[in-house]
UniProtKB/TrEMBL annotation:
<feature type="domain" description="Spore protein YkvP N-terminal">
    <location>
        <begin position="13"/>
        <end position="107"/>
    </location>
</feature>
<dbReference type="InterPro" id="IPR055259">
    <property type="entry name" value="YkvP/CgeB_Glyco_trans-like"/>
</dbReference>
<protein>
    <submittedName>
        <fullName>Spore maturation protein CgeB</fullName>
    </submittedName>
</protein>
<dbReference type="Pfam" id="PF13524">
    <property type="entry name" value="Glyco_trans_1_2"/>
</dbReference>
<feature type="domain" description="Spore protein YkvP/CgeB glycosyl transferase-like">
    <location>
        <begin position="181"/>
        <end position="324"/>
    </location>
</feature>
<dbReference type="InterPro" id="IPR024542">
    <property type="entry name" value="YkvP_N"/>
</dbReference>
<dbReference type="Pfam" id="PF12996">
    <property type="entry name" value="DUF3880"/>
</dbReference>
Length: 333
């Protein structure tokens, strides 16, 4: 399994391990763009040592490694290559399509893009985001005791497109910040935010420093969800029935009561007022927060329902099992 930009990697390898696979991880960082010989040496060594049935790759490879050189090494050995386009749909043309066109099989979290891949002769299947086995219900910690918490990175660059000066890639995410987080901050609620770039001046929304908790180690995130009365969420995609932020699955998997920005994907997989709550406006966010902070038993019952739904349907082992079932149609058992 090859992961580009390992500082932000998903944990799908745990799903494959739980599904009974032998897995070898190779994390590919920025040093490989400066030293192509290191990429050749590291990847070749891993392939020769492990002799995999297939290579499964994903991650933000741009400015990390030469994707064609990477795929050339795998192709020369005749190894079946699977690419997960985890950055769909926002970076479909920029980061997903180049490796997808040279892969034997592609998975995407956005079902609506499968016909688009087919136009390029690419065999694509659905693989949504999910909850890792590390995100489970844990005891609360005093340092994370807040009414509300958000764990997310602030990708909302003020300008993405240099020509139009508009934030194209993360427009829906920015709307979610203004819809889900900003009204609570403006109302001076007890809300704490953890993640990267929240106090940077070049973002579409700059969080007041009093509400910022810094960047958390990954292993601390479940404790945040265990300690806050409400775990907030923002979604990156508003045009897909199958894309849901991994943070939503993780918050629910940790047993947190979750209020997130509305998206078609959230509505497709979860029931409002049963597994979680979603908001369509700043006003609704405030109403939901005030209501559920005043109704502990109802909040806790919904949180339990959400956790059970994730445990039964939306953990990484479920995704790995689905992926393996497809892969086995293309390679010998």
């Amino acid at each position: 399994m090859c992961v580009f930009s390992p500082q932000i990697y998903n944990e799908i390898h745990h799903g494959f391990l739980e599904a009974g696979c032998d897995v070898k991880d190779l994390f590919i960082g920025e040093e490989f763009i400066k030293r192509p010989d290191l990429l050749e040496a590291a990847l070749s060594s891993a392939l020769d040592e492990f002799r995999p049935d297939f290579v499964y790759s994903y991650g933000w490879w741009k400015d990390i490694a030469d994707i064609d050189a990477f795929l050339d090494i795998i192709k020369r050995r005749g190894i079946f290559h699977v690419w997960w386009s985890a950055d769909d749909p926002t970076c479909f043309g920029l980061a997903s399509l180049p490796p997808a066109k040279r892969s034997d099989l592609v998975f995407t979290p956005v079902e609506e893009l499968i016909p688009e891949y087919a136009k390029y002769g690419v065999k694509a299947y659905l693989q949504p985001n999910a909850c890792s086995p590390h995100h489970i219900k844990l005891p609360p910690k005093a340092e994370y005791l807040h009414d509300m918490a958000l764990v997310a990175n602030n990708y909302s660059m003020r300008y993405v497109d240099e020509e139009t000066k508009r934030s194209i890639h993360y427009k829906f995410r920015v709307e979610g910040i203004y819809q889900t987080l900003k009204p609570l901050v403006d109302a001076r609620k007890d809300v704490k935010v953890w993640g990267r770039w929240w106090t940077d001046f070049d973002r579409a929304y700059m969080l007041p420093t009093a509400f910022y908790g810094g960047v958390l180690p990954t292993e601390e995130v479940p404790y945040v969800y265990a300690s806050a009365k409400i775990a907030l969420g923002i979604q990156q995609v508003g045009v897909s029935q199958t894309y849901v932020s991994s943070r939503t699955y993780e918050a629910l998997g940790c047993g947190a009561f979750h209020i997130t920005q509305y998206s078609p994907g959230v509505e497709n997989y979860f029931k409002k007022g049963v597994h979680l709550e979603w908001s369509r406006s700043p006003e609704e966010t405030l109403e939901l927060a005030n209501f559920y902070l005043a109704h502990d038993s109802l909040r806790e019952a919904i949180a339990l329902n959400g956790q059970r739904e994730v445990d039964e349907k939306h953990r990484l082992i479920h995704r790995a099992q689905s992926v393996l079932a497809v892969i086995l149609q293309y390679i010998p058992k």
